[in-house]
Amino acid sequence: EKGGYEHFMLKEIHEQPRSIQDCFRGRLNLDEGWVGLGGIKDYEKQLTKAKRIIMVACGTSWHAALVGEYLFEDLTRIPVEVEYASEFRYRNPIINEDDIVIAISQSGETADTLAALDLAKSKGATILGICNVVGSSISRVTDAGSYTHAGPEIGVASTKAFTAQVTVLTLMALTIARKKGTIIESEFRKIITELDLIPNKVAKILEKADQLEEIAAAYKDASNALYLGRGNSFPVALEGALKLKEISYIHAEGYPAAEMKHGPIALIDEEMPVFVIATQGPSYEKVVSNIQEVKARKGKIIAVITEGDEQVKEMADHCIEIPDTDENLTPLLTTIPLQLISYYVAVMRGANVDQPRNLAKSVTVE
Ligand code: M6R
Prior knowledge:
alpha/beta, binds 5-amino-5-deoxy-1-O-phosphono-D-mannitol, aminotransferase, glutamine-fructose-6-phosphate transaminase (isomerizing) activity, repeat, Glutamine--fructose-6-phosphate aminotransferase [isomerizing], transferase
């Protein structure tokens, strides 16, 4: 059932070209130039008129929501708030009847997310879901929603569910943007063309498994690690850190790269691996300066870069090259090598990768 892989997590990481494709099958048509999500069709109009969208989730799904915030605000110009479900439900949040609350959950059973939805519903908001498990509690209580179609995820560490959640959020944002007129046709075409190429590009990154295993071997004995990114790579940094800590038990933190100098920089010495997402894009030059700041303090840099980048290669200790894509889609690619590195580190440390200590696949208690 592990399809020849040693662990479910490894199998699920390798399934991503397929699971991302499954996620947009029937929802994206390049020839005719459209995207659409059947499940939320009746709510499209309401979404285009929304003054605010609130996304609630936990863990990795909360990181997907943060990527969603960038996508929605950039493409649809609708203000988005991303909330930890557990915090949202206990702080007397302001919820209006014209708000749309989107819950994101792989299992569709997370207690805090479910309770946050109940609260939003009681205040009259429209509640939508993005779930992986068909027929799950969250998919049943929501007014409407879209499944991620990633297939069963067994490993406790979420991998393919995350990339599928980001794919659904991309499709949703594109659908609303087009209906609302906040995206020009050429840009829309460009993004859907690039989205269609993502599964092949993910497959290309997976071919780098040997290089990623070598990087893992170099840092497997670290006691701490830092993950840095800016813009939509910041949630990828958070996700990279979560993946490493939950399966390898190495303490890891994700930070917005520019925040490093407000505290975490004090941690940097020659023992500290710093993973940096430094792909081409609007914040590239800024990230390059952040890398220089780390190097000046003898930290080790493992950089995820766009193919052909020479500047970062000269500074970093290790570089992982990924294919170029549209700025809005980079999280779908940059996440992949970080998942694999965490996996290999955990295996090398002899940890129980699929069932880390103290963790359950779905957290049905608060
Ligand atoms: O099923 P959900 O997406 O609602 O689960 C949320 C979190 O419990 C989950 O993402 C958790 O953080 C994972 N172990 C992360 O890999």
